[in-house]
Specification:
5-stranded antiparallel β-sheet; 4'-phosphopantetheinyl transferase superfamily protein; transferase; alpha+beta; 6 helices; 4-stranded antiparallel β-sheet
């Protein structure tokens, strides 16, 4: 069963991405779920959702973890029992995790779709990106911005945080494959490194909270 991509972000941080092609029965082999996660999976009506859920357990195995190493806080944010940081994402047939010994991390995978052009005003001051040459470039850029904000939201994990008002992604070019972002919320400012990549019509964005930020 193939891991689609492994990225070494730093000596202490890695990203693992899975392309879900296997049937559920194959993915379920050798996966032992906690009662909490088994109940979650039992409640999933969609086979695609269950396959994605199981594939994430295979990604965790790549990093040396089993489901019992994982727990969720009241916000729904995942944590590892050994104190390392983890973030999880899935979109259609791609799933991904990021694990770090040293940094708070967030990850998001999104399918690139025109729909984002219609909802952009809800999460970013869209005029910042109007200079782009064509609709496809605008769609790609907005998908990166959305993924960045989603990744930061997963790190910050506080109710009331607004993508539009509280999270700012500094503009970037596609060639950069990285940018920085900040959250200004309740009088506190925090800073984040953001990296992104595109594959097969999908965008993966991951963020690390900067030390002292």
């Amino acid at each position: 069963m193939p891991v689609y991509k492994t990225i070494t972000v730093s000596p202490t941080t890695s990203v693992y991405i899975w392309k879900v092609t296997e049937p559920e029965i194959e993915l379920a082999k050798d996966v032992e779920l906690t009662e909490h996660c088994q109940n979650r999976m039992d409640g999933m009506k969609s086979e695609a959702h269950r396959r994605a859920f199981l594939s994430i357990r295979h990604l965790m195995a790549e990093a040396g973890y089993v489901d019992h190493d994982l727990y969720y806080d009241d916000f729904g944010k995942p944590h590892l029992k050994d104190g390392k940081y983890i973030s999880i994402t899935h979109s259609h047939n791609f799933t991904g995790i990021i694990i770090s010994e040293t940094d708070e991390v967030g990850i998001d995978i999104e399918m690139q779709r025109d729909k984002i052009l219609r909802i952009a005003h809800k999460f970013t001051p869209i005029q910042e990106y109007k200079t782009l040459a064509n609709t496809e470039a605008l769609m790609r850029k907005l998908t990166i911005v959305w993924g960045a904000k989603e990744s930061l939201y997963k790190i910050y994990a506080q109710r009331g945080l607004s993508f539009l008002r509280h999270i700012n992604v500094i503009d970037f070019s596609f060639e950069d494959t990285r940018t920085v972002a900040e959250i200004m919320y309740q009088g506190k400012k925090s800073h984040y490194e953001v990296q992104f990549m595109e594959f097969e019509g999908f965008t993966c964005v991951y963020a690390l909270k900067m030390m002292g930020g």
